[in-house]
Amino acid sequence: MGLELRQQLKLTQQLVMTPQLQQAIKLLQLSRLELLETVQQELLENPFLDETEPEVEPQETPDPREVLTEAQAEEELVRTADWENYLGEFSSTSKQALSRDSEIPEEGMSFEARLASKPSLEGHVTWQMRLSDFTEHEVAIGEVILGNIDSNGYLQASMEELTSMIQATDEEVESVLMRIQRLDPVGVAARSPQECLLVQMEVLGYDDPTLVSLVRDHLEDLEKNRYKPLARKFKITMEELKDYLDTIQTLDPMPGASFSSTEPHYVSPDVFVYKYGEDFVIILNEDGLPRLQMNSFYMDSMKGAADKEKEYFQEKMRSAAWLMKSLYQRQRTLYKVVESIVGFQRGFFEEGVTKLKPLILKEVAEDIEMHESTVSRITTNKYVSTPHGIYELKFFFNSALDLNDGSQVGSESVKALIKQMIADEDTKKPLSDERIGEILKEKLDVNIARRTVAKYRSAMGIASSSKRKQYF
Predict the structure, then answer these.
(1) Is the pTM of this model over 0.90?
(2) How far apart are CA 277 and CA 275, in angstroms?
(3) Which residue in 266, 284, 407 sits closest to 347, CA to CA?
(4) Which domains occur in the chain, in start order?
(5) CA distance 333 to 282
(6) Cα separation of 230 and 221, whole Å?
């Protein structure tokens, strides 16, 4: 078979992801705070982008007839002044001046100097060790111990691992560990919940043998509500056992939790939905988002620029124009998606989560005539403020459960009903998963299996009926 060169024409169609298209897709899935950072960065890098000044409302000029003369103003001051407050109590200096003097030193301080950092658990215990009669060697052992505790205050290293980290014997490490456990918070660096509670009981003077045995040997039985066997074993009544439980519940099983470094997550809604009359009004949150425009100075400078400079200017100008267009498209898409969600989930916005309907991305995409991937990106990391609280846009998309009449109900609505039923149940006779399924069938006419109820209950972090049962 011979080899030869041959020319051939071929017509194909393919999708090319240009940098501009990639930027537009990226802007869709950015959260509001990430969007602000991206726009601010573009403002710094692109000279053609400029931020418009906010419109200043004109100030009203006072009526000349209402302006007091200097003599009239002085007479009004003499008549209405609070002389007691002005002169102060037994002082030649006014109270305002005294308070002002106390504020002046603070004004000269830096912003960082006015803030106090939250103390860490390790720093708090180390501070106590250095104020106590710990030797330098014992402090060094204590720092190794504190470096191996978790956020709840429990020691995560074995004695062999601790002794290998620092030149010390088992007896020295154990001695320092016992002293640390009796510092504040009491029970810190414990190796088990039993040890943590026993140390707290020792410090508080709880030396009842039954109480000590309950904590040391039967903590798991108490957790699983095995009260009657315990009452028979210790030959006590249920009321006496309840008193012991009340005492144990005053102890802190997680002494380091109050020093946790986790910070609250604050959410700034991207959209606000208000009810106005019989309709709902959608308002995009554009607070802090710069209003962009093309810089007129560089636009004029571009006319007399050299070829290389003009090429650079044209590239930056196209980039600025595309960013402005992408931002507009993002806000427009977000508005249309929220408008479609409000239409589909009007029952939720009217009455709450129990009226949430099943909804999938495809339904919203077909409603606004966009692709599912676009709807998925625009609903990522976006939050909406509703009359019933702040929710992520993904919350409104949930699976469906079939009703006997052929209609459907949203899974989130079923979860809300399960949560409400458990909140209203008799704690001495909690509802089983099977009973909850029967009640749902009566209320919603929906056939839901017991395992489905258990799955929804576990997803909401609710314990089973045996663990929810209270005997007292």
Answers:
(1) no
(2) 6
(3) 407
(4) 121-259 (1.10.10.1330), 271-396 (no CATH), 400-468 (1.10.10.60)
(5) 13
(6) 8
